[in-house]
Amino acid sequence: MLDPRERLIVALDVPSAAAAQQIVAAVGDSVFTYKVGMQLFTAAGPRIVHDLVTSGRRVFLDLKYHDIPNTVGSAVAEAAKLGVSMLTVHAAGGGKMLRAAVEAARRVDPSVMVLGVTLLTSLGVPDLDTMGIRGGIKDYVLRLAALAISDGCHGVVTSAREAADIREELDGDFAIVTPGVRPAGSDLRDQVRVVTPAEAIFAGATHIVVGRPITEAADPAAEARAILGQISSLAAIS
Length: 238
Fold this sequence. Notes:
This protein has 238 residues and is α/β, with parallel strands linked by helices.
């Protein structure tokens, strides 16, 4: 069973390395893994990943690679060289792209987890309709999750609202990373399909990603510990 501190990922959705390091210092040793996404990586570059890794933190590099197979494979190889523990690719990129990503990571560092992103938590049914995708969110997410797992991804990134369906429909011991997690009463902001930590764990998530409720808290360490306490309690009875 995963240590609760491995299951909580804090999102460093900030515009500078200095802001990121301030959050890491404030959270302290309660959390092992931090998400570096597009904003921070674009602002601070690979150096922020290097600094986090050399300080003993694990990095979830959430750049959602989506391009031709050769380009994605090359990018994933470079990410693996940086020492990241987890990284994301869009499952909608197709089987060839997913396989290229998995193979590239395996060549550089077999411990790197390649995760297939199913559907962004900011999207709902009306968005799928305008994109010409029919069949509803559940069917679409299940198709992409099945594709990602069958092509070798170590897990998927999906809302907890679909996590339970994925666990039920797909065989195998794979990770489910759930973004859009907000403690009860938090501001939803730009995300639509959000859940609480309890809902995510009950749905079968192995990892949850929490950003602003921790990073903008008056006491980030205390907020992280509170969420870790929920994870520990729920994991013990699930």
